[in-house]
Task: structure prediction
Amino acid sequence: MIEVRSLRKAFRVPVREAGLFAALGSVFRRRYRTVVAVDDVSLSIERGERVGFLGPNGAGKTTTLKMLAGLLHPTSGTLTVDGHEPSRREPDYLRKIMLVLGQKQQLLWDLPPTDTFDLNAAIFDVPRDQYVRTRDELVELLDLGDVVKKPTRQLSLGERMKCELVAALIHRPKVLFLDEPTLGLDVTMQATLRTFVRRYNEQEGATLLLTSHYMEDVAALCPRVIVVDRGRVTYDGSREELARQVRPVKRVTLRLARAATAEEVEGALGEGVRVVTHDAAELGVEVDRANVGECVSRALSRLPVTDISVEDPPLEEIMRELFRETSAARLEADADATARVDADAEGAPDSGEDA
Result:
């Protein structure tokens, strides 16, 4: 469904020093620098897949989504979505996609959301009976009721976000680009939107590309993740494989009949076990994947266990450690590059007759 090859996007950004004289000088002579937001990105997404597109702030996630939606033209490289070139903005292509940005809205501020639904149905030329059926189905799935009849300015953030999804899905797109769709929502509303998006994907066979800083969104929706950093893809695969590569451990949560110290638990479970969370009678320990069975056996025989669970470390911790590793590698590479430049400068001939 989505094919991207060697995608690159660079922006020419004006720069100047602070102050009045610098501002006046920039009127007559403006200086620019080139900022590379996306650098040699390649990926392939099959029809119906749900993929998380992750990375730190400024990694190039939103820029990539905007190029896939046709809002930005790539500097170089190729990309196609269901055989279409997004930058051409063909009507047939626009009917197949939707883009929801958590920081933007399409709802008309002083009018009820139902008016925006009617407008979008007209823009996409949706037959009246199909539009009414789709609208009513989406409103029911999201439990909106009479909310769609109130002016948008009177709605809460969660209600507006749900109405944004209805407006974006009126034409039943086959490709969903979601950029921070649960931004600012409470836990209950986040869970509601996740359930809705997953149900739509399963019912319509839609392809989903999701960016989010809430790892619960990714864990609930996306079996596959693509990680980008500084515009480049650093990982593409399953969540489980990412966890194995970054944190080759399992998190064992123990609930005990009585309070216990971290030292007591580590002593009972043996070497290679580390307590990472401790709250009286509930502890979380990390153990190598190969030793999980032995750790559980020792816990059940040596400690007053009332409940036990084994799972991968939280995705937030995995991503935090991954970004820390890539940041350290980047700093090391920058330091090496600086050292090479200094060495070249020292070996260069002096100016003058010797040169």
Q: What stands out?
A: Confidence is low (pLDDT under 50) at residues 348-355. The chain has two domains: 2-242, 248-311. The domain at 248-311 is CATH 3.30.70.250 (Alpha-Beta Plaits). The longest helix spans residues 315-347.
